[in-house]
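Homework help board

Subject: predicted structure for assignment chain

Our instructor gave us this sequence and asked us to write out the predicted structure in C-alpha cell form, then describe one feature. I got the C-alpha cells but I'm not sure how to describe them. Can anyone check?
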Amino acid sequence: MALVNMKDMLVHAHRNGYAVGAFDLVSLDFLQGILDGAERCEAPVILSLAESHFEYFDFEIIMPAVEAAARRANVPVAIHLDHGASLESAIAGIRLGCNGVMVDASTQPFEDNVNYTRRIVDMAHGCGVPVEGELGYVAGVEGEDAERHPGEVIYTSVEEASEYVERSGVDFLAVSIGTVHGRMRGEPQLDIERLGRINQALGIPLVIHGGTGLSDAQFTALIENGVTKINYYTALSDAAARRIRANADADSGCGYTGLVKGAAAAIQEEVERCIRLWGSAGRAEAVLAEAAPWQEVEHVIVYNTEGADAQQVDELMAIGRDTLGQIPGVRRVFTGHALAEDAKYRHCWVVRFAHAEVVDSYRHHPDHQAYADTHFRPVAGDRISIDFEDAG
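My C-alpha cell output:
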C-alpha cells in the first residue's frame, strides 16, 4: 500500500528542498501516465482532481480507480481535491477517497476567505486530512483554464499570508507571485523576492498553481524559496493532444483506440521531465520511511435489539444509513443481519472511516449523537463496539 499521509509527504519535501508534482488528471490515460512517470523516477507524487474539470469525468466513478491505482503503486501517493467549490465538495472528496483537499475561496474578501477556509480546516482536520488554502489570485491567461480562472492576477502579501495561515489553520498555502493557469503569453515575470519573504514568514510548504510555461531556472528559484507542491496540467494535456493529432495524421480512418494510442506515454514523458527537474526523483524510499500510511478504520458494532420488531429494526438501519453516511469522514455504512439464526448477535453495523481521526469527530458529531440517543441506544442495549484498522 503506497497511499500515504499527504502532509507527511510535503513536510519531507519542504525540509529537504524539493517539490512534489501535483498532476491533474482527467482520464485513465492521465492516471496511468502520471503513475508510470512517478514509478520510473522512484518519486512521491500527488494525483490531483480539480472540480473545474468535473465536466470531463464523473468524480464518483473515477475515484475508485484512482484509489486502487494509488494503493497498488510502489511509490508514495496522495490524492488531492483541487479547487473544490464548497465545504460540501470537500466532504464528498474525503468520502470518495481524497486525503488532501483545497477549497478555493481566494476570490472572496480576506475576512470571508479566512472564515470559510477555517470551516474547511475544522472539518478536514477532524478526518485527519490536511488542507491547502489560497491567498491572492492566480488567473487563467490562455487555453481552457482562462475561462475557469478569469480576471487579473492578485499577488499574495506577506502580512496577509501570515495572518491567514495563523487564523485559518491551513497546512499548505497556494500563493500568487506571477504564475497563471493555462498557457503563458510571453515571458512570465515572477516575484521571487516576495515569495522568499512569504516562505521566511510562514515556514510551511508553499504551493504554486499554474506551473506550465515556466523555465527550468524559474522552477529552481521557486523551490529554493519554499515551493513544495507544484500543480501541473496544461502541459500534460498538450502532450497528449500532440500524440492524438499525430495519430490522426498518420491514419485518418483510425478509431478511438487508435487516436489515443500512446497518449499515456506522452503524459508519462512530461511527468518524468518535471519530476527530475523539481528534485523529487529518487525520494520515494525516504518518503515511505517517514510518511504514515493512509489507513482506513472499520467501526464495527454487533448488537441485539429489545422492544423492536423486524420492520422497526430495518427502519432503524435505513435512517442510520442516511444520517450517518453524511457525516464527514464516513466513507461507507453497511448494515446487516446474521445469517445463522442462533448467532449470539443478530445485527451489525460496519461504518468505514477515512482515517483514525474520524473515530473522535464521528463520536462527537451532533448528527451521530442525535441518532444514537433517539433511535439506536434505546433498543440496542446489548451491543459490542470495536474500531479496527487494516492489518495488511
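Reply (TA_rk): Your C-alpha cells look well-formed. For the description, you could write something like this. Residues 37 and 271 are 6 Å apart (CA to CA). That's the kind of observation they're looking for.
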